[in-house]
Hints:
It is built from 25 helices and 13 strands. It is an alpha+beta fold and 677 residues long. The strands form five sheets. The protein has a four-stranded antiparallel sheet with strand order 10-13-12-11, with helices on one face. It has a three-stranded antiparallel sheet with strand order 7-8-9. The protein has a two-stranded antiparallel ribbon with strand order 1-2.
Amino acid sequence: xxxxxxxxxxxxxxxxxxxxxxxxxxxxxxxxxxxxxxxxxxxxxxxxxxxxxxxxxxxxxxxxxxxxxxxxxxxxxxxxxxxxxxxxxxxxxxxxxxxxxxxxxxxxxxxxxxxxxxxxxxxxxxxxxxxxxxxxxxxxxxxxxxxxxxxxxxxxxxxxxxxxxxxxxxxxxxxxxxxxxxxxxxxxxxxxxxxxxxxxxxxxxxxxxxxxxxxxxxxxxxxxxxxxxxxxxxxxxxxxxxxxxxxxxxxxxxxxxxxxxxxxxxxxxxxxxxxxxxxxxxxxxxxxxxxxxxxxxxxxxxxxxxxxxxxxxxxxxxxxxxxxxxxxxxxxxxxxxxxxxxxxxxxxxxxxxxxxxxxxxxxxxxxxxxxxxxxxxxxxxxxxxxxxxxxxxxxxxxxxxxxxxxxxxxxxxxxxxxxxxxxxxxxxxxxxxxxxxxxxxxxxxxxxxxxxxxxxxxxxxxxxxxxxxxxxxxxxxxxxxxxxxxxxxxxxxxxxxxxxxxxxxxxxxxxxxxxxxxxxxxxxxxxxxxxxxxxxxxxxxxxxxxxxxxxxxxxxxxxxxxxxxxxxxxxxxxxxxxxxxxxxxxxxxxxxxxxxxxxxxxxxxxxxxxxxxxxxxxxxxxxxxxxxxxxxxxxxxxxxxxxxxxxxxxxxxxxxxxxxxxxxxxxxxxxxxxxxx
Length: 677
């Protein structure tokens, strides 16, 4: 390895400079006396060969890691394994995608050290772990949590094999571990059927679109209300917190107009919403059966924030706790070296997060949710800064949380003392629907036979008492994460064009940066989300391959050839199939005609925009790995008609004419097979 090409320490600390002796190692692996950590005066705190590294100068408080090959606390590991572990930690410090905080390094260290403890306990060196499948399975017993993180770290390290000079697990071994690791709650998380998922997505989007369309009128009404409360509080909004009682400006019992006292009354609040052209909007989304009051406006703004949160969770693989900490500047658009636009959400800063990698790849459609919630947060901040009972940080004012509190002085939920917790507690998805019953139509979310069949097909062990035909689907936050992952990995499940586009856009970026471990983004991505994506990816391969067993699919070479293609499925359960997929023993991807089960390199013609490689033409026979989907017959017929028109317009003998002729013959062959099977 050429150490001069290493980026150097990326830890965010004022004591780290490019001229510091620990900024970049002199050789690889670093010498045992290389100064890893130095203090503000340049004194060496920890050297590479030390049993314990003291990261306190970087963290600002006591923070250490213990390698376990000498005296001290923590699990012991052999000297050979400790040497390998040091190299990995050094790579995380000085290699590609280096960590940005000491806490992040500690989190990664604590996530991977149990693997080295397991290797030591089993009497092997970690670099030879791939040779021992039984030990790989035993490693999983050392983990009760962080399984997704571990998979993500191992996946990333496998791409650094040339630089490190070793790898912990090859592809086959890493995927044995992935299957053996505890799944915790993920295997029991129900997949939301496409029809129901589409219903809730459509209503969330409609809610956000409505807000954006009326944003100026809503803001004007909101500002008018603040001014009205300030006036009736004696000209100072801060005096209005705690309530104005009968002096509220929208008290319908008071005479309309300016009073001798200097207070002014505007009649019932509905009249004000009508004046600002938002009466129908609030009626549409909020419960106004009893009356419409300023608190109804607050309720609507809170609904917009909750709808934005739910919309983001559908397209990001974020957990609700993570999305609840997003701030106004969270949305970023980054162009990578390949010229692709990568849409990213960034969470709380690296100095306050547990592991310092709070960035998630998302679909570009989340932009509207961020814009809507930012607008609400900005409005509410106008009231919050006048609240005499609370103190706001500079960050809270300039970059407010998107899940904002109702700070309006007329709201009974406006804080009258300094909040103890920094972040708003997330309600359950079901609670949100209960509070705002107009958000979803219960009739549209009633489970049908087709819904339950799809949910069962894509969920391992769905609860038969909770999910019943004729009952309303019980929406939950964690379902959005898993359903989003499945839909992005198999966007063909979703037929609605605009949603399919959004899913494919996110899927393409996730495949590159989560699946293939591309590094060249400005900041590190969330490792837990990366690991979650990888595990869902393997399960998606198995599901698609299992579906080929049905009579819906045929081989152009006959039933015997189909049986040969699918021999991996015979008498294997779901877990065994996942193991086969991870080992590379089964492969499947969708094509225009149906599917391709070729486990070799990708076909240069793709099977999407050009089908001649699938069915052959002239003297070329159909591909042995091709399978035809009977349900795609109408699309294939349509392709034949389009190509027939195009071929008449192409110059005979030209490359275009020859290509179209091959396409036409391939389409006719596919139609003949399907119609005669």
